[in-house]
Amino acid sequence: MPALPSAAEAAKILPQDPPTILNAYTTLVLAAENAAVEAHNNMRLVQSRVVGYLMLYPPSSESLRTVTMEVDSCNGLGHSDPLQAIYNLGAMYLSHLIILFKGARGRTPAPSDHSSRPSFDRLREDCLNNPQPSPRDHSSAKASALVRDNFRCMITGKVDWGAVRRGLTDRQPREVPAFTRCCHIFPESLGNISRGSTGSKEHETATVWTTLHRFGYKDICEELGAATTATNLHRLENILTLDPFVHQLFDMLHLWFEAVEGQPNVYNVALAPDSTHEELFLPKTVRFASHRPGLPLPNPRYLQIHAACCRIAHMSGAAEFLDSVYQEMEELRVLAEDGASADVLTVAIHRRLADPG
């Protein structure tokens, strides 16, 4: 995993005013990284680098101010070990930002072609004549997004086979079909807050919303309905129609969208460093277009936050680290008595937030 830029290199990236930004990065974050290297502690190494890259490539100017303030506070009177405080801060961002966008998502119901003819007709009428700009559940979000996206994956252009079978759209000669998926940018699990509840999932979900609020995204928290129910998370601004393979890449932080400056709704399709567009048969650039007036496209700011987390995950080594831990979670049946499974246990605990169950 790549090391953080040196103090001299960071000085070319970080704002010069106030000077405390570079000082916090140099004296605390780089020191934490060096200590983790010397201790051969991969978890701490990732945690320190997540903090460092959040400072170097923040999703917003407000997030830079927030992270800098929190790094500065690690050297305060309340922390007997400033470096451990940096690791704790990195663990919080890892579990409530990076893991939030990675891994388990709301499960898409399995497609079915065995509905009765009257239900086909109702679906056709609902989808074509009454698509919802603000759906209230997963199924209606998928149906409205399909209408908006012309019943096709927004990236590959593959036509939805279920829509073809139901007569909702035509399949062109030699056109490749797929059972498309309804993909949430901010996962459905962020609706895990029930009024008056104080369970662990509610606490972790509230921490995510609080972090986004402190990063300058109060409007997004309000739009997506934090602290109420999951219904606002189904709004079309938070939905993409994707081929299952592309959906998996997006959920695993291996694919994200970077806005092309000066071209509304045009995005570069960014991939993990070990992948190429040619080998995955994916375009390098896409233009999102709504095929039905009144149905909004994915919100560029939602995609911007997802993209920032993807970039930081790969630059910090968090993506590779989490992939290896997730693999070990699948294979591990019993925790090691010598504590060697501590990383797996820590990630497993925080991964609960992404579990819709």
Could you please describe the fold and organization of this structure?
The protein has 357 residues and is mainly α. Among the domains are: 7-101 and 317-354, no CATH class; 188-231, no CATH class. It contains 15 helices and seven strands. It has helices spanning 7-11, 20-38, 42-56, 61-73, 82-101, 117-129, 138-148, 161-165, 200-214, 218-223, 244-251, 277-280, 300-316, 318-331, 342-351; strands at residues 159-160, 177-178, 181-184, 239-242, 255-259, 266-271, 285-287. The protein has a three-stranded antiparallel β-sheet with strand order 5-6-7. A two-stranded parallel sheet has the order 1-2. A hairpin with a 6-residue loop joins strand 5 and strand 6. Helix 6 crosses helix 7. The longest helix has 20 residues, at 82-101. The chain is elongated. The relative contact order is 0.13. The model is unreliable at 104-117, 334-345 and 348-357 (pLDDT under 50).
Q: What attributes characterize this protein structure?
A:
7 strands, HNH nuclease domain-containing protein, HNH_nuc
List SSEs in N-to-C order. HHHHHHHEHEEHHEHEEHEHHH
Task: Specify Rg, calculated over alpha carbons.
Answer: 22 Å
Terminal CA distance reads: 33 Å
Any idea what the shape is? elongated
Average pLDDT score: 83
* Low-pLDDT windows of residues: 104-117, 334-345, 348-357
Major sheet: arrangement of strands: 5-6-7
Alpha-beta content class: mainly alpha
Oligomer: single chain
- Summarize the amount of helix as a percent range: 40-55%
Provide the β-strand percentage band.
5-15%
Number of helical regions: 15
Largest sheet: 3 strands, antiparallel
Number of strands: 7
Organism: Trametes cubensis
Protein name: HNH nuclease domain-containing protein
Pfam families: HNH_2
InterPro entries: HNH_nuc
